[in-house]
Amino acid sequence: MFDWISGFIDAVGAFGIGVLMFLENVFPPIPSELIMPLGGFNAAAGREHLVWVIVAGSLGSLAGALFWYWIGRRLGTHRLKRLAARHGRWLTILPEDLDRSNDWFTRHGGSAVLIGRLIPTVRTFISVPAGVARMPMASFLAFSAVGTVSWTALLAMAGYLLQAQYGLVAGWLDPVSTVVVAGIVGLYLWRVATYGRRKRRKAAGG
Fold it and tell me: What are the transmembrane regions (predicted)?
């Protein structure tokens, strides 16, 4: 995984960072915790400018956030709950999960979007309740941009500062990245397998 991401960024440059960050937000098997530090490595090596790495990563991430915001706004609560009821096993969510996320967003509003953009996995889906609640686009983009730019800049700077240890980092990050991706896939399969049990527990009030 590490070698593939590194090769893709080397071949495509900052645009490739934006594409990967968009995909990471739409479906998260390629974590930003790998993409942005590698962009920082490239910047330290002189192959990219650090500012462009951060800009590309942030724009790609924001595009992914807007995708989910549009899904939530377009479908609305009732259609999303029907979708969850019909295909919940493969989406690994229950209609009640949507109610809980909507309630949490209602209580915290913009701060939920800002903080959610800093949390792995949560950043992918926090845009949905924002869209469902029809949060003003300008406010959504403002809160998302603060969280997104902070996160991507932090990761890119980490990669930039660690460039001198590139060989050491690459040696352990490749197997770690493979484990992370395998863990994400494993968690998804576990949620699919236990969907019926969770649904019965919810129905029983537990």
Answer: 7-30, 50-71, 140-162, 168-190
